[in-house]
Amino acid sequence: MSVNFFKHKAKLVEAYKDVLDDNSDTDWALFSYEGNQNDLKLQDTGDEGLEELEPEFNSGKIMYAFVRVKDPNTKLTKFILIVWQGEGVPATRKGACANHVKDIARFFQGSHMTIYCRNDDEITPEEIMKQVTKATSNFSFVAPKEDISVPSPVVSSSVYQPINPQREILSSRNDKFWIKMQQEEDARKAEEKQKAVNLRKQEAVEIREREKKWVEARNQMVKQRERDIAEKLRAQKLADDRSDIREKEKAAWQERELQDLRKARRSQSIESAHEAEVLTTQRANNPRAMWAQREKEASSGSRTSSISEQPETPAQQPFYQQQPEAPAQEPSYQPEPSYEPEQSYAQVEPEAQPSDDANQIYGNEPVETTADQQNNQQEPYDDQAGNHNYSFASYTYAYQYIQPSFIYPHLPIYTTKLHIPTHTNIVPRIYSEVPADEPSCSAEALYDYQAEDDTEISFDPGEVVTDIEQIDEGWWRGTAPDGSRGIFPANYVRLL
């Protein structure tokens, strides 16, 4: 909204005319708004100049002052309009009142200049007069009064013109003033130009220094990054070399272990087959047929058969070397003297039930040892030097020790069940038990995992876990890059 002069127009015009009147002592008038309205009113007047006006300005209001002063250069009266905008005035109020300045300057006609002040430093008399001095011009406004002018000269035909000393003095003084002002303005412009040049030079130097520092920092950062990359590549290469060495050593060790296992099992199978072959070759006659013949002879009354009449076999060779040259006597059934044998023969418990292969080697059926036979196993025999009298029971015991599968139905015997696999059964089983070389399973780590105890392994993203055993759906066992072996979660890796 525009400013309103009509509500207090009489007082405004009266104060304005008092300031314009040279005969009046009033040299300033202060105006302000009525409340928050746009009605302009008279605030105060005074006759003691700018010193009296200075404390009247309020920092929370927008005020206008019409002042009459003396120009120190021309000694002429100057009228100035001061626009005061206090620091405490809201910005919206300042914006609304900014459009009122032109209307107020038009209402207070005759002002030589308008000065804007916003704080106490700008409203001091010295600062106001400094602004007035800078703006001094030939134009001077004088309030309406009786005109005391010099009478115009009488027109004559001569070229002579009267001299007006006052006009000449004023003209000369004004010329000097404007020359001085022009010189000051030129000096000010030159100074500002020099300052601008110096400022541009300083900015250029600062920009060059800044660019130089930035280039140095960038080069240092690039070098540091190259060093880091080289260090990582060197560490990765060293880790790969160590991993290759460990893999080669492990493969060589596994190959040696496998060769040793194969050699040991091959040697054991050959020895077992050789033993089986030796045992089978020593059995030239069938013990079942031989003792069937013996039973037939015993039933016909030939109970006096001596041990020397028995046919010799390769397995019985060591026993018959102890027989005497004299004819054998009838076996006696008297109890023989007991003594502690040098070596006791306890019944051997087999590891498993005898197979058909073992029975085929000896050519008989497996026989269970009875309680009577176990009691008779500790029965001693007499082996005296010079007279070798052997009872039938002792002979049976000795012969049964040589032939474990020998059977006599009516006498206590000592039997032993043996399970001797053949060569054809041993060799294929040994070779089938040798573990085959299974392909090694590897996986790449997708996430970082840290072991919680000694049974787990740790790895970082991108590392490779080797020798993986898929022991469970959620947990696998493998070898970490550092050589440790343990379990880890299966969903943390990706099979290669």
From TrEMBL:
Polar residues bias (residue ranges): 299-313
Q: Where is this region: Disordered?
A: 264-363
**What GO cellular component is one of the record's annotations?**
dendrite
Ranges of Low complexity compositional bias?
Answer: 314-345
- Does the keyword field hold Transmembrane? no
> Where does this polypeptide localize?
Cytoplasm, Cytoskeleton
Q: What processes does the entry annotate via GO biological process terms? A: neuron projection morphogenesis; positive regulation of axon extension; postsynaptic actin cytoskeleton organization; regulation of actin filament polymerization
Protein family: Belongs to the ABP1 family.
Q: What is this protein called?
A: Coactosin-like protein
